[in-house]
Amino acid sequence: MTPPRAELTLPSPDATCALAARLAPRLSPGDVLLMSGGIGAGKTHFARCLIQSLQETPEDVPSPTFTLVQVYDTPAGELWHADLYRLSVPDQCVELGLADAFETAICLVEWPDRLQDLTPSTALSLSFDAGSADESRQLSLDWSDPRWDGLVAELLA
Questions:
Q1: Where are the beta strands (DSSP E) in the chain?
Q2: Between 20 and 30 A from 15 (CA), which of 21, 82, 139, 155?
Q3: Is the pTM of this model over 0.90?
């Protein structure tokens, strides 16, 4: 059976941010978002908007490209933002504590291909690509866990 898929066009960075803000309050510890796409595709912008929308007082949200993981305390629970671009083997993900965080925190993972066998089967995958217009993005959402069915339908409504 083919897993569910939804596709949408985000016409601007503001639209990308608005989608992240609509998704954020629906997330809870144990939810994992796998964000893929080339450099500059909008992964970090999406993550930044999502994180800031969960913070009581929005703060600066740096890209974790060099720190690998940034951890935030939010009213929704602990949130981990990971950028795995610089990792070469999945064991490094375990060393960072990601495998445990997948169970206990909301996790946003950029460059999820680095996880390989550690990829949670319950995750929601978001694939970002440049759209046909300047600053627009094409977003594909893929999932297999029924937990995401209603949530994605709400986001697209």
A1: 5-10, 32-36, 69-74, 77-83, 106-110, 124-130, 137-142
A2: 82
A3: yes
